[in-house]
Amino acid sequence: MRIVSYNVRYFGHGTRGIASTPRAMDRIAAALAGLEPLADIVCLQEVETASLRSNMAHPRESADDTQLSRFAEKLELALLAAGKSEMYIAHYFPAHKYKLTPTTHVYTTGLAVLARRGLTIDHTNEDVPMDITHRRPTAVKGLKQTRICAHVRFRERSGQTVDVFNTHLSLPNAFSADFWKRSDKMGYGKNQLVEAENVANFVDKERVSDRFVLMGDFNALPGSPVYTYFAETRGYRDAFAAVKGYGEEQLRAWPTAGFMRLRMHLDHMFSGAGLQWQDFGDSHPFAERGGRFHGLSDHVPLVGTCEVRAG
Question: Residue 140's pLDDT is what?
Fold first, then answer.
C-alpha cells in the first residue's frame, strides 16, 4: 500500500491561508495524480467544508458543494489528464466551525481521507470523529479550536484489514509560562501531550491488529515530549525514521514544514509492526526546489509504501 499524509493549508497557500483558490487545488491535484505508483490512501489535514474563506476566491456552484467535493473533482480531472483511469472516494471529518451567523461560517476546519478504488471500508468515524482536544477550564474554553482523530478501517485486496488514523494536534499553548522558557516549543506543550495521550488511547481502543498507521501534522519536533510519547511510551514505530535510518538530529534536519525562515519536521507516520515499510519515494524536504510538492503548501507530504503483513 502507498500512503500519503499531507497538510494542504486549506488549498490557500498562495494567499497565505487567507482564501482558498482553484489554482492551488489544481496544482495539488496534479501533484498527487502524477505519483508513480499512485497512492492507495491519501490523508489530508486542514480541509474545509464551506465558508467565507473557502468560497471567497473559489465560489461554489451548488448548496451541497464543499471544498473537498471540489478537490475530488479536480483530482479526477488531473488523473484523466495524466492518462490514468483511477478514482478516489473522499471522506470528510469535520472538526470546528467559526460562525458569523447560524448559517454563515468565517472558516471551518477538518480532516479528509481519500481511498483509491478497490479498497473496501469496514468502518469509519466520519459521522462522529473522535474529539481529542485539550481544553483548559477557563471562561474562553469554548473558543478553543476542536482537534480530532479520523479513523477508517480498510480491507485491502488480500483481505487483510488496515486501520488508518489521521490527526492534527494543537499548537503548544502560548499562554503557558513554559512556552517562553525554552527555544524549542513545538511538541513541548503540556496541552499537546494531553492530546497525544487522547489520540493514542483512541488508536489502541479502535485498532483490531498491529496493521495500523497513525499520521498527520503533530506540530511536534522529533525528540520532543509528544514525539517521544508516541515513539517510546506507546511503542509506535516512526516509519520514515525507520526507512531512512535517521535519528533525532537527522530528522530535525529534514523539514516537513516551514514558517517564514523556520524549517521544522512536524509531520509523522507512526505504525504498528503489522506494516513493513519499504520506501518514502516522492517525499522531499520542505523548500527543496524541483520537488514534486514544492511551493504548494506550508507543509510537504510524507509518501510512504508498506507491505501489509498477514496474520
Answer: 52
DSSP labels for 65-114?
--HHHHHHHHHHHHHHHTT----EEEEEEEEEEEESSSS-EEEEEEEEEE
Q: What is the pLDDT of residue 144?
A: 81
As a 3-state breakdown, the chain gives helix, strand, coil percent values, each rounded to 5, of 25, 30, 45
Give the global pTM: 0.94
| CATH code of the domain in which 85 resides | 3.60.10.10
| Cβ–Cβ < 8 Å for 297, 7 | yes
Rounded distance between C-alpha atoms, residue 226 and residue 193, angstroms: 5
Assign 143 a pLDDT band (cuts: 50, 70, 90).
Answer: low
* Total tally of structural domains belonging to the chain: 1
